[in-house]
Amino acid sequence: MSLEKFNCKPRRPVSFRLCNVSGYTTEVMEILSQDPSLHVLFVPGNPGIISFYKDFLEALYEFLGETASVTAIGHISQTEKNWERGKLFLLQEQIDHKVDFVRQQLLKDDLPIVLVGHSIGAYMSMETLKRYPEKVIYCAGLYPYLMFNPLSKTQILYKKVFRLPVLCFLLSFCIASLGLLPKCATRLLVSKSVGKSWSATAIDATCSHLLRYHTFRNMLFLALGEFTELSGPLDWAFMRENKGKFAFLFGVDDHWGSLEMYEEISKQVPEISLSIERQGLIHNFCCTEAGSLWIARQVASFIKNIRQ
């Protein structure tokens, strides 16, 4: 089905719920199939605001022919309300959160699990696979951020900035100040600045979630943890042992999921499934409807291949 025809087809909307995962209030979006053959768990990037991925999740469910349940789990304290009262969470804590969600919510049924992760969510998904190698049958990484890239001037700059607590506080405070404006003014400001080409879904998610002090501060804190913890080598032995369970999609001009990372993985794990998106999309593909639909179709093709 072409994307043009698909775009005209009515889609089943996601449902939203809050759940308690190991004591943390967690935002979840999902579409449950009436007769699922597997369960797809999506882990977002940073920020881990699942509202950004609404169009993607709905499209993925449809591209899979409504035969799989699709669930997305947000990151701790990157939520609309300040449930955790400003506490900051490390990368490992966010990983443990995803592992606990699988244990509490998905192990109770007999469905195999497919993990799909975007950016740092790909790394979180890989770590979750390590904990449940028998339950998780596949792991797809979209524009994966798996290792710190010392060749990226952008990453080096971000690392220097995020190591300054006072600057992070000021940035978060300024962003949160914008969120205090009337909703119509905030929406207009976002749509005329960073969100000129964004979908209504992405603009709504920015206004409702990202322009919050606790969310933005946790986003910066998580990013600092990424730079620190991803400075070492990947677990190449694990990836070689499970190469048939992995698929990674990289972008042509993406400093997070860089082509240097693509080359390194292809060298270390020659038979792993790797592909490059050449449609001119951006790392935050979920901010445009075209990007959400194209990536959803690609992920669906990954999953359909393992069913054959």
From TrEMBL:
<dbReference type="GO" id="GO:0019915">
    <property type="term" value="P:lipid storage"/>
</dbReference>
<dbReference type="GO" id="GO:0005811">
    <property type="term" value="C:lipid droplet"/>
</dbReference>
<keyword id="KW-0551">Lipid droplet</keyword>
<comment type="similarity">
    <text>Belongs to the AB hydrolase superfamily. LDAH family.</text>
</comment>
<dbReference type="InterPro" id="IPR029058">
    <property type="entry name" value="AB_hydrolase_fold"/>
</dbReference>
<keyword id="KW-0378">Hydrolase</keyword>
<dbReference type="GO" id="GO:0016298">
    <property type="term" value="F:lipase activity"/>
</dbReference>
<protein>
    <recommendedName>
        <fullName>Lipid droplet-associated hydrolase</fullName>
    </recommendedName>
</protein>
<dbReference type="InterPro" id="IPR019363">
    <property type="entry name" value="LDAH"/>
</dbReference>
<dbReference type="Pfam" id="PF10230">
    <property type="entry name" value="LIDHydrolase"/>
</dbReference>
